[in-house]
Known about the structure:
Layout: E1 4-8, H1 13-24, E2 29-33, H2 45-50, E3 59-62, E4 65-68, H3 70-81, H4 89-118, H5 126-147, H6 160-165, H7 180-183, H8 185-195, H9 203-206
Parallel strand pairs: 1-2
Antiparallel strand pairs: 1-3, 3-4
Helix pairs in contact: 1-3, 4-5, 5-8
Amino acid sequence: xxxxxxxxxxxxxxxxxxxxxxxxxxxxxxxxxxxxxxxxxxxxxxxxxxxxxxxxxxxxxxxxxxxxxxxxxxxxxxxxxxxxxxxxxxxxxxxxxxxxxxxxxxxxxxxxxxxxxxxxxxxxxxxxxxxxxxxxxxxxxxxxxxxxxxxxxxxxxxxxxxxxxxxxxxxxxxxxxxxxxxxxxxxxxxxxxxxxxxxxxxxxxxxxxxxxxx
Length: 214
């Protein structure tokens, strides 16, 4: 058995954060496929009792530990591997600031928007989609402005803040109906830098379950 196991599925940007981190640090890991769509696995009593009471992915298994919430997983792995860590107390707080902003404002809006557009039945109400899109545009503009100042979010090298922010940004433009990299030039260049890191893989190649079992 691999050192780490990750409960995940290919369409989950939240799970992609953890899977990408595992790959980038060269961890010995394997995915455990979660049938989110047709099977509704995360909503079952068994999953909530045995895997994650919150009914979510990702969940990282390391020995007797089961760790959920992607920001916690990224922090845990960076501390164990000594890679992608912020390099000072001030930088750790700054990374945490961007992790929270990402989860609330960037991928926190992109994730529901993409789900409602592609996977929800019926699809999202147009008024809801317009609201989410306006929030997405504003949040991405903040990130784009930040990346105009330096190659990565915290400066000259990538950290867990960068890995977190990529969560949904590599999914195909047609799944959003707009091209994030084309509309936000600094984000586009930064995504290329992240893609060039050793161990990078696309979410649909890194995790099982594509195409989805709807």
